[in-house]
Design brief:
With about 425 residues, the protein is an alpha/beta fold. The chain is built from 14 helices and 20 strands. Strand 19 and strand 20 form a beta hairpin. The longest helix is centred in the first third of the chain and has 16 residues. The radius of gyration is 23 Å and the shape is globular. It starts with a strand and ends in a 10-residue tail after the last helix. It holds the Pfam family AA_kinase.
């Protein structure tokens, strides 16, 4: 018998027919003797609808009341799933965040989990009850409903799994696992059977949209085994060890799998792309100690995420150009902030470009394989793709290129690193 948290995303619960499909998957797991807790998202599109209601009611809405409104989407699906399971003869009930409780810090619309009391949930599951929990929400110390921001249901599912000591947390989505790259771009992308937390965290942070970065980070911190699989299966849920998805595990477990010969580690595990980047260049910045800090400190204080920083040798003595990237959604705010500080910062002008893309190759094998970056640069150069900026970590190399060359770059690199499967992805 295993204790499992199952999380279903918005597309999986989009309507009563799909909720019945989800109920069948959940019932199959419970029928195997497993203790099951289910975390659900709102139906696809529902959160956007509720957010629009808030904006129409009051463009300067109170974040606490915003949370009351948008949290209702998950509450509806949790109640509907519990009702559907009951109709199938299962013992099931819904648990709202404040009933457990899921305690969060009082940062409305982007709350962080502080603690989850799992005792009542464990007792319910041990009594044979299927627990259905709305994701994305909790309660603050002032007893106000809070929400965890976009993708927060993944995070709440992992937090729930950690709180109740689950054997694993299964994340059901509209894709059947984590692939070496986007199968819509590379038909011969391969589904990855096992991937380390660190690799998944890097892939999620650079554009892979299968999992939210906060959920992977929490899983790594609490050593929660994650599995990504699809809810769109015809034969119900397979047995626990034969689920056709991707298992996300610790580096020590990955090392054991490698030692046992279960798998072979390549230098690169996956390739991700992100078209939501914008490039910013500050020209003729004074080349003196503290100048760069003066640029990036206010950006950081404003909560603007900066990546891929390059400081060039200036055309004139005592001057330099500083290049960096920010999310496209933050470009206008970043530019306004820099414009306000132009005299203090002493730069000549700001040049921006939102028609760029970040391409990243990720793999724990980079620690033991040399020439990964060289392979990347040569493969791109051979196809005439210009690299505008570079950033690296211990297990990642990212480059900035023209947006129009994104798909070509992904295909070229996928082949260059030997990731193409023999057959096309289904």
């Amino acid at each position: 018998m295993a204790r499992i948290v199952m999380k279903f995303g918005g597309t999986s619960v989009a309507g009563t027919e799909r909720i019945r499909r989800v109920a069948n998957i959940v019932r199959a797991q419970a029928a195997q003797g497993n203790q099951v807790a289910v975390v659900v998202s709102a139906m696809a599109g529902e959160t956007d609808r509720l957010v629009n209601f808030c904006r129409e009611a009051n463009p300067l809405y109170d974040p606490a009341e915003y949370d009351v409104v948008v949290s209702s989407g998950e509450q509806v699906t949790s109640g509907l799933l519990a009702l559907t399971l009951q109709a199938m003869g299962c013992k099931a009930r819904s648990w709202l965040g404040w009933q457990l409780p899921v305690r969060t810090f009082a940062n409305h619309a982007n709350a962080r989990v502080e603690d989850i009391e799992g005792e009542r949930l464990i007792a319910s599951m041990e009594a044979g009850e299927i627990a259905v929990i709305p994701g994305f929400q909790g309660v603050s110390e002032t007893q106000r409903i809070t929400t965890m921001g976009r993708g927060g249901s993944d995070t709440s599912a992992v937090a729930m799994a950690a709180a109740i000591g689950a054997d694993r947390c299964d994340i059901y989505t509209d894709v059947d696992g984590v692939y070496t790259t986007d199968p819509r771009i590379v038909a011969r992308a391969r589904k990855i059977k096992y991937i380390a937390y660190e690799e998944m965290l890097e892939l999620a942070s650079v554009g892979a949209k299968v999992l939210q970065t906060r959920s992977v980070s929490m899983a790594m911190k609490h050593n929660v085994r994650l599995q990504v699989l699809s809810s769109f299966v015809e034969d119900g849920s397979p047995s626990a060890d034969s689920l056709p998805g991707t298992m996300i595990v610790s580096e020590s477990e990955m090392a054991q799998l490698l030692e046992e010969g279960t798998m072979e580690r390549q230098s690169v595990t996956g390739i991700a792309h992100d078209k939501n980047e914008a490039r910013v260049v500050l020209t003729r910045v004074p080349d003196k100690p503290g100048a760069v800090a003066d640029i990036f400190t206010p950006l950081g204080e404003a909560g603007i995420n900066v990546d891929m920083i390059i400081q060039n040798v200036g055309r004139e003595k005592g001057e330099t150009d500083v290049t960096f990237t920010v999310p496209q959604a933050e470009l206008a705010r970043a530019q306004a902030l820099l414009d306000d500080r132009r005299d203090a910062l002493g730069y000549n002008r700001v040049i921006t470009d939102s028609k760029v893309a970040k391409i990243s190759v990720v793999g724990m094998g980079m620690k033991s394989h040399t020439g990964v970056a060289a392979t990347m640069f040569k493969a791109l150069a051979d196809r005439g793709i210009n690299v505008q900026a570079i950033s690296t970590s211990e297990i990642k190399v990212s480059v900035l290129i023209d947006e129009d060359e994104t798909e070509l770059a992904v295909r070229v690199l996928h082949t260059a690193y030997g990731l193409d499967a023999e057959d096309e992805a289904a």
